[in-house]
Amino acid sequence: MASTHSDLITIYIIKSDGSQAPLDVPVNMNLSLMEVLRSDGYPIPGTCGGIALCATCAVDILSGNEKLSPAGDQELDMLDLLPQSTEATRLGCQIKLRPEMDGMVIRIDSES
Ligand code: FES
Question: Atom 3 in ligand 1: which residue has the minimum CA distance?
């Protein structure tokens, strides 16, 4: 269910076991998807610290992809290196949370 607080949106996380969990995230702190997932305890290593060099923050955007900015060249280069990458795969560190992403559904496959 979407939050009614203007500074919070709700995104939905599909975990590798198939379960789904809502996550309320702030959109007024310039945080990335990788940062909020990590801070909530999801297994997102984010090894490079968010500069699109490690791809350990890759997630699949199952719903809401059209609301995201297109991937940049560096992100596309990293995604090309991922064997399991699909058109829905994005680097979480390159996605800044914005109000229009409310209701977005993402899948996390990493269990590392
Ligand atoms: S945290 Fe390294 S590519 Fe996103």
Answer: 52
Instruction: State the distance from the centre of ligand 1 to the C-alpha of 10, rounded, in angstroms.
Output: 22
Q: What is the pLDDT of residues 53-74, one digit of tens each?
A: 999 999 999 999 999 999 999 9
Q: What is the pLDDT of residues 89-108, one digit of tens each?
A: 999 999 999 999 999 999 99
Q: How far apart are CA 40 and CA 4, in angstroms?
A: 21
C-alpha separations of 104 from 32, 110, 112 in Å: 14, 19, 23
Classify residue 68 by its DSSP letter.
S
Tell me the Ramachandran region of residue 12: left when phi exceeds 0, alpha when psi lies from -120 to 50, beta otherwise: beta
Q: Which atom from ligand 1 is nearest to the alpha carbon of 32?
A: 4
50 lines ligand 1 (CB under 6 A): yes
Residue 18 Cα to ligand 1 middle (Å): 24
Say whether 104 sits in a helix, a strand or coil.
Answer: coil
Q: Are residues 42 and 67 in contact, defined by beta-carbon separation less than 8 angstroms? A: no
